[in-house]
Amino acid sequence: MKAIACAILISATAVLPALAQDISAGERSWNKCRACHQTGEGAKNLVGPQLNGLFGRHSGSVEGYSYSAANKNSGISWDEATFAEYIKDPKAKIPGTKMIFAGIKNEQEIKDLTAFLKQFGQDGKKL
Asked: How far apart, in whole angstroms, are the C-alpha atoms of residue 119 and residue 39?
């Protein structure tokens, strides 16, 4: 019985690193976003809004950015699950959004990008 329990524990431990979020991989994924968005201290709105402090924020609420009515009226508060659904297909999640992006379909890449974004507070400083 101990041998089986030990084998299960070893198998579970081997799988866990694959599920972990990788900020470095998320930063590489961020290169897909950088043409339209900024993060970090001094981030500005570009074609898209700056993404500092994204998680916990309401959609359409970055000051100085001109959002589509669909985005402003979506009622979305950004959390990991909502962001994951959105980034896979922005126009499916918010019909009428002006964000033109094919989406990221890979679950691990989305987790890594999420980890990268979550490190920036509203002021752009790393938490």
From this structure: 10
Largest Cα–Cα separation, the chain: 63
Decide: residue 2, CB within 10 A, 0-12 exposed, 13-18 middle, 19+ buried: exposed
Domain-by-domain residue ranges, the chain? 21-118
Below-70 pLDDT ranges, the chain: 1-19
Q: Give the alpha-carbon dihedral of 48, 42, 54, 18, to 10 degrees.
A: 100
User: What SS3 state is found at 20?
Assistant: coil
Euclidean distance between CA atoms 118 and 23, whole angstroms: 9
Give me the pLDDT at residue 64, please.
97
C-alpha 125: how far from its chain's center? 17
82: its two tokens: 């909502």
Domain 21-118 matching CATH 1.10.760.10: the answer reads yes
| 119: its two tokens | 């490190």
With beta carbons less than 8 A apart as the criterion, state whether 97 and 106 touch.
Answer: no
